[in-house]
Amino acid sequence: MLSNKREPLSTRCIEGGGRLGPSLGREQRYYSDFAPRLDHGDGAVLKVQHWLQASGATDARLSSMAAIGGLEKRTLLRRFLKATGLPTTDYCQRLRVANAQELLRSSVLPIDRIAWEEGYADTSWFRKLYTRIVGLTPGEYRLRFQGR
Hints:
This protein has eight helices and no strands. By secondary structure, it is mainly alpha-helical. The chain is elongated. Residues 1-26 have low confidence and may be disordered.
């Protein structure tokens, strides 16, 4: 027998895998910026993280990152994942997408130009990656957040 009583929201979220559906609330990842872990205590990885942040991660070759950190490539990959929780490629992609988010909020540059500025020659790949990370297309994100 069906009941007209609604379950508490917390119960629905837990049973639904912990995510709110579109009709139940906002997707929180739309509103959060990438905040990399910097309190891990690995000095070599921290040097690489600061270099990636300063360079915009647009030319982040593994050999360059290893040289900056003073580590062998495989050692850097292992320690970077342990320290940050992300592989170097994912970390760099998230940094670049975060930079693109800032440009989408604060400029009127076309999306193709923003993709190029962030190192993506293929705009369709940028749009797919952006949508996968943020949950909105770049155009949807701009409409929702420009001027904020």
